[in-house]
Design a protein that fits this description.
Layout lengths: L19 E6 L3 E8 L5 E9 L14 H10 L9 E6 L4 E6 L8 H16 L6 E5 L8 E7 H13 L6 E4 H12 L8 E8 L2 E8 L2 E9 L4 H16 L8 E5 L13 E4 L14
Parallel strand pairs: 1-4, 4-8, 9-12, 12-13
Antiparallel strand pairs: 1-2, 2-3, 5-7, 6-7, 9-10, 10-11
Helix pairs in contact: 1-3
Length: about 280
């Protein structure tokens, strides 16, 4: 099954009796959900704020600014005060890479330099300004690494500081999805190899996980016919990886669509938001 994910560097103490404020930052929308803690987490307030998405006057590397401005306004309102925030950053604002195991690396400094090198090879000089984290893996395994623009992280921390709130958890959306999948399918017998597909705001992430190791991960713009597109993409990834994945289960995680994915000839596990909700914030743990 998929390995556990990670949190961005925590800061401050988390008070277990405080309500939780779950925030999802996307290019087109800012979603906030206040949850009362207890034996059962109970949603008590929710807001979805649509954002101006033209972004013509913004640098291409900072098109998250409308979301930060909207967050600033929301954190001034009383309904969010006294909460412990947990932030999830859209895959549009995060970047991912599979980092191969390298036996030549002897210390943490060399490992960090190698991971950053992998990102600059994949994304260019933009990656030099990103905060990069990797998941812990067993010896000899490739690692899934994730990066967020350090300017975005600093902007988020500053907004919560101004609001008198300590943000302890900031996660790329894919990492949250991995943990939700693990929780939802904990009692489901699965093969040790699978296809993980995530759909968020017209962005598809297609990844292969084989015998306990990350094999590949690619991001694509979603097309109108997701099912036909995915059939082609899964076959393409299988050919590139040089392995037959046709019998692997497909785990489909979506944040906004309520339509189940159906891929003829493949076993699909659909993990979708509840029909009464449209952003999946209730699924976070």
């Amino acid at each position: 099954m998929l390995p556990r994910s990670f949190n961005w560097p925590p800061s401050g103490w988390e008070l277990p009796w405080r309500d939780e404020l779950r925030i999802l930052i996307q290019p087109h929308k800012l979603s906030l959900l206040r949850v009362k803690r207890g034996i059962r987490h109970q949603p008590v307030a929710k807001e979805d704020i649509l954002l101006e998405t033209s972004g013509a006057s913004l640098p291409s590397s900072e098109f998250w600014q409308p979301a930060i401005s909207s967050l600033h306004q929301q954190l001034q309102t009383r309904q969010w005060h006294g909460c412990q925030p947990r932030v999830v950053v859209s895959n549009h604002f995060a970047h991912y890479a599979i980092v191969p195991w390298n036996t030549a690396l002897s210390n943490r400094q060399e490992q960090n330099a190698f991971v950053r090198h992998c990102f600059t090879q994949a994304y260019g000089d933009f990656a030099r300004g990103w905060d990069i984290r990797t998941t812990p893996v067993p010896y000899g395994h490739p690692a899934l690494a994730s990066a967020i623009d350090d300017k975005l992280l600093q902007a988020l921390r500053e907004e919560f500081r101004l609001a008198g709130m300590s943000v302890r958890h900031i996660n790329p959306h894919l990492m949250v999805a991995i943990n939700v999948v693990r929780h939802r399918l904990a009692r489901t017998p699965l093969l040790n190899s699978l296809n993980l597909v995530m759909l968020e705001n017209d962005r598809l992430i297609v990844s292969l996980f084989h015998q306990g190791q990350w094999l590949s991960l690619q991001s694509y713009a979603a097309e109108s016919d997701i099912e036909d597109q995915l059939q082609a993409l899964l076959e393409r990834e299988s050919i590139i990886a040089g392995i037959d994945t046709s019998q692997w289960p497909v785990i489909f995680y979506a944040t906004e669509t309520l339509e189940e994915l159906n891929l003829p000839g493949r076993k699909v596990y659909n993990i979708l938001p509840h029909a009464q909700h449209h952003h999946g914030l209730e699924a976070w743990h």
